[in-house]
Amino acid sequence: MTYTLPELTFDYSALEPNISARIMELHHSKHHAAYVAGANAALEAMAQARETNNFANLPKLEKDLAFNLGGHVNHSIFWKNLSPESSMPEGDLQAAIAEYFGSFDAFQAHFTAAAMTIQGSGWAYLAWDVIGNRMIIGQLYDQQGNLAMGTMPLLMLDMWEHAFYLDYVNVKADYVKAFWNIVNWPDVAARFASVKVNSRSLLLG
């Protein structure tokens, strides 16, 4: 198995009342686990294609891998982005948010709008743009679409219905509002510190 389901650093009930234990259990043990299995299955099928020199299904397998690996990566970051104890961004992260978005309130409004206006299923994200050397906010369609190469994710919010429907039904605004109560800003800050130092040299040499 190339990919494995990561353990959470908190109990399924730890994020209540913002996200229920039932959603966390289903989301992690069923949905995320399915993406892990799907990514591994796609890699296994590609290995078989190489052994038999039969690449007729390669376009489908590439799409399967992109979708399922996207789901695995997105969720692995998302779990780390969450915490039962949340405060506010500090230090370099706080300064960067002010620099690139004007203020935390402006950043929060932009990120919330990105989450609320996704067409269909997808994610809202804050990322570091290696080429532009700046933070950007964007929308990720499904698990893998509309994300430019060279962007390094810092903060992700799952806007698929399985992430909130049992708690919030179709009132997505309440789910997004609750998200701000459980953001793990130290994790976001650690990701920011790492990618700002290392990512440009890794991408551009």
CATH secondary-structure class of the largest domain: Alpha Beta
* Helix content class: 40-55%
Largest sheet: 3 strands, antiparallel
**Beginning-to-end CA distance, first to last residue:** 31 Å
CATH structural architecture of the largest domain: 3-Layer(bab) Sandwich
Question: CATH fold name of the largest domain, please?
Answer: minor pseudopilin epsh fold
Mean pLDDT: 93
Instruction: Find the count of extended strands (DSSP E, 2+ residues).
Output: 3
Category from helices, strands and their pairing: mainly alpha
Number of domains: 2
Beta-sheet strand percentage? 5-15%
Q: Provide the low-confidence segments as ranges.
A: none
Can you list the strand order of the major beta sheet?
Answer: 2-1-3
